[in-house]
Amino acid sequence: MEGISAQQIIAQLGLNTPPGPIWNIMLYIVFILAVVTMFMQGDKQNTTVLIMGAVGLMAVVAKLQIFPPKDLGALVVNAGMFTLPLIVAGVTNAKKSVGPAILCAIVAGIYFFGFWVFMQRT
Predict the structure, then answer these.
(1) Is 20 helix (H, G, I), strand (E, B) or coil?
(2) Cβ-contact 37, 101 below 8 angstroms
(3) Of 48, 60, 61, 68, which residue is the least packed, with the fewest Cβ within 10 Å?
(4) Which pLDDT score, from 0 to 100, does residue 30 have?
(5) What is the average pLDDT score of the chain?
């Protein structure tokens, strides 16, 4: 098994890498909204912070294409990016973070269904 260098990871994080700029921009938006929502949580809401951290991690996993586009793992990661922010929006006590969480879920949902139709079904 060959090693992965930091240069390969940085090159994969670029805007014009596969699957394309539109998909990459949506992943960047999902990551940024997940981080913003994570920082808007209260001091005693560790569960929602961890869930939004998982959403950010899923966005990075999808961007680095750790799973091939037609793999079940890619579908699970994309579905998680869509559903987990909705769960956080429903259970959080910090009402100011509901808007960014729902916006994150909307962008992730567009990414999830679009990626499924155009990349996974072909």
Answers:
(1) coil
(2) yes
(3) 68
(4) 97
(5) 90
